[in-house]
Amino acid sequence: MEPRRIAIALTFLLVASAGLAQNSDWQIVKGLHFGARISVRTTHRSLHDPCVFQQATDDGLICLYTTHSQWVPASTISFPRADVREVRLERGDGSNAALGAGIGAGTGAALGGAMAQSGKKAAAAAGGGLIGSVIGGWFGLEFPILHGPVIYRATPGKQTHTPKHDAGTQASLAQKGRTRQP
Q1: pLDDT for 6-60, tens place per residue?
Q2: pTM for this one?
């Protein structure tokens, strides 16, 4: 393929992907399948709240907030549509855990090898890499690095309400520092 055609094809793909990310069609959110992993950004939070999609109506979005902790119960979160700034699909836990494990293994191996006495560097690097991969995998699960595409972005200036949470959600989110204090 000649360079000009490649440039045109890449430009088309770039414009098409930018158009998808700027989509303000709420019907896409309403059409998500039950159980889809999403994250929601609201007018009151600059971070995304990860959750499992339950339902969307013309008035808002309902999803299930879960963690990887056995001590924090799952709870339902309701986001009024007027507050939703952005909805994005999220990747599965496996890709984030694998990336975290890889980063942790490399860091652990480098630190283990650097801190060991000569003659024991290989064993220390292997042990450090193993420990680093476990810690990095956990961090990858709890703090996702890779995100999926934005499927909805609200037009600016239309959001005015506050997210409504049930009592269990307020308690579990407060433990993680994810609620706004009045």
Answers
A1: 444 444 444 444 444 457 889 999 999 999 989 898 888 766 777 899 999 999 9
A2: 0.57
Among 98, 176, 90, 107, residue whose Cα is nearest residue 138: 98
Q: Which domain holds residue 156?
A: 23-90+148-175
State yes or no: pLDDT of 4 exceeds 80: no
CA nearest to 21, candidates 149, 155, 171: 149
4 in a structural domain: no
| 103, 136 Cβ separation under 8 angstroms | yes
Helices (H), the chain: 3-21, 26-30, 93-115, 121-142, 167-175
Statement to judge: residues 122 and 65 lie in one domain? no
Q: What are phi and psi of 13, to 5 degrees?
A: -65, -40
